[in-house]
Amino acid sequence: MVFTGIVEEIGKVGSLYREESHLLLSILAKVVLRDLHIGDSIAVNGVCLTVCSFDDRSFVVGISPETLRRTNLEQLKESSPVNLERALSAQGRFGGHIVQGHVDGVGTIRSMYPEGDSLWFWVETNKEIAQFVVEKGYIAVDGTSLTVCATQDCSFQFMLVAYTQQHVILSQKQIGDQVNLEVDILGKYVKQFIKQD
């Protein structure tokens, strides 16, 4: 399963509830419901989740304890906006970068400021994630494929153009909010190969 970090639509949380020992998330959507099947994967704020059920207005996914530990999904509430992307089909265009939907951890927004019609962000994370973040490299932030503009210690900077601001949830965030981070998988493989030498 692979995603591209090109968000297809902004959905809305219907409910977050427990059914026996399972935590389930219901999301209102339109675009991602097209040609949807039970068992399909949808990235919700960058987290690859499996569709358990759906109707003509919403779909339901289950969330594991490990997913809750690594992501910001537990902070979602009713009506929270979420980035949604279906897994890439064999016929699909590869518009972003390789995103697995396996979130590495979270970061915290430390600053947001406009420049013309663009919006700049600085996000702080931990050393384990920061070691894979490089200037002009890719990173997925809440499932959005972005180019890193600068790095400093355990922080990195990126920018949203006007179009992207209108089509992802990042521009609705505030300083202090947490975002899901997935680093470029190529950097992880390089580190593993170097470790083996």
Structural class: mainly beta
What is the helix/strand order? Answer: EEEEEHEEEHEEEEHEH
Low-confidence stretches: none
Helix content: 10-25%
Strand content: 35-45%
Shape: globular
Biggest sheet features: 7 strands, antiparallel
As a whole number of angstroms, the C-alpha radius of gyration is: 16 Å
What is the mean predicted local confidence, pLDDT? Answer: 92
Q: Record the strand order, biggest sheet.
A: 10-9-13-7-8-12-11
Helix segment tally = 4
Q: Give the end-to-end Cα distance, rounded to a whole number of Å.
A: 30 Å
Strand tally is 13
Describe it:
- It is globular and about 45 Å long.
- The model has no long low-confidence stretch (mean pLDDT 92).
- The chain has 4 helices and 13 strands.
- The protein has 197 residues and is mainly β.
- The strands form 2 sheets. Strands 10-9-13-7-8-12-11 form a 7-stranded antiparallel sheet. Strands 1-2-5-4-3-6 form a 6-stranded antiparallel β-barrel.
- The protein has helices at 65-70, 127-130, 162-167, 185-196, and strands spanning 9-19, 22-28, 41-44, 47-54, 58-63, 81-86, 105-115, 118-124, 138-141, 144-147, 150-152, 155-160, 178-183.
- Pathway: Cofactor biosynthesis; riboflavin biosynthesis; riboflavin from 2-hydroxy-3-oxobutyl phosphate and 5-amino-6-(D-ribitylamino)uracil: step 2/2.
- This is Riboflavin synthase.
- Residues 2-97, 98-194 form the Lumazine-binding domain.
